[in-house]
Request: fold
Amino acid sequence: MKRFFLFAISICLVVVAFAQSPKLTFAVRTVAFPGSYAPKHVMAIWVETSTGTFVKSLMVLAGTRASHLDKWKAVSGQNKVGAITGATQTSQNRDRTVTWDCKNLSGTVVPDGNYRIRIEGTSRNSYGIDYVYNFTVGSSQFSLAPANNSNLNNISLSFDPVSTPIESTAAEKAGMTIIVDLQQQLLRAQLPSVCNKSTFRLFDITGKEVCSWANVESVSSNMYELPLFIELPHSTYVLVANSHNKSISKRIVL
Reply:
């Protein structure tokens, strides 16, 4: 027998046992790198500060030929800690996606400010191409789509910041109400503040994201319906609602 029950929790009773990290996602399709060895190529994607100080490698596909990535080698000292790594690539027209948790090599979240993604690639035993994409780490969410060029297509950068918790005001003491409808395989969440669209993320007790719903429109009175697309084991979870760069979290049991 499937269950249907109401789970309403005051905001002052909820303690989230993990912190959300900011996340930058960079995606690109590599079209062509110059050089006589094409389509074979080596490439690297990394993060640096706006003044060119190396922060972290995100992807290095080069193997023993990493020394031909002149720009990356000069700033990183060929540091690949935490990066996606691989050998020399044998084909072009490949989609690449990397994410950065905004942490440096020591595992510390970097300060807010201006940074840049750099991507370098070559199909010869020397410098090939090098592109720079600027962005800002801060409290604002963004999505960017730089123009295509002869070497790279479908370029995108998106940033999901650390959300500032919503403070409990006198009008919001009830917090977020959650209705768990396992018969319909739905979570219904009612937020205390007016917002046409919100994003929701569901985490297990280890902090792993198990479901997410982006830009959900309210169905009525700040009520949002969140379909459960996968069967989740009986356990405690944390539902996090994000809107206007603020968040509210509630613990639920499924």
About this structure: Residues 1-19, 163-174 have pLDDT under 50 and may be disordered. The chain is about 5% helix and 45% strand. The radius of gyration is 22 Å.
